[in-house]
């Protein structure tokens, strides 16, 4: 179990995918995402293993949920600055989390 104070340390925000690029150097199939996380957080990049259910072109403009206060992580030649959240389906492929209705980029989850 974690405490409420532990949960409050996680900064989870809504962002919109602006760009999607192939990521052939990743060990597992992945895409490079460029996200607008609002005026406070800004533009961040992330690597996401979401190639099973999503085509790059279909992701542009989609809102997603991301953890924005992990330290940057190097994946091959790419620095991932946030973690886009998803749930694993029965085949272990990622399905992205998103708000039910459009909200402002940068809105905090909590």
What's the short story on this structure?
This protein is mainly β and 110 residues long. The protein contains three helices and ten strands; from the N terminus they run H-E-E-H-E-H-E-E-E-E-E-E-E.
Query: How many distinct beta strands?
Result: 10
Mean pLDDT across every amino acid position: 96
The major beta sheet can be summarized as: 6 strands, antiparallel
Rounded to an integer in angstroms, the radius of gyration calculated over CA atoms is 14 Å
The count of helical stretches stands at 3
Kindly report how far apart the N and C termini lie: 17 Å
Q: CATH superfamily, called what? A: Nucleic acid-binding proteins
Strand-residue fraction? 35-45%
Low-confidence residue ranges? none
What is the string of SSEs from the N terminus onward?
HEEHEHEEEEEEE
Structural class: mainly beta
Percent range of helical residues:
10-25%
How many domains would you count in the coordinates? 1
- Taken from the alpha-carbon principal axes, the silhouette is globular
CATH topology: OB fold (Dihydrolipoamide Acetyltransferase, E2P)
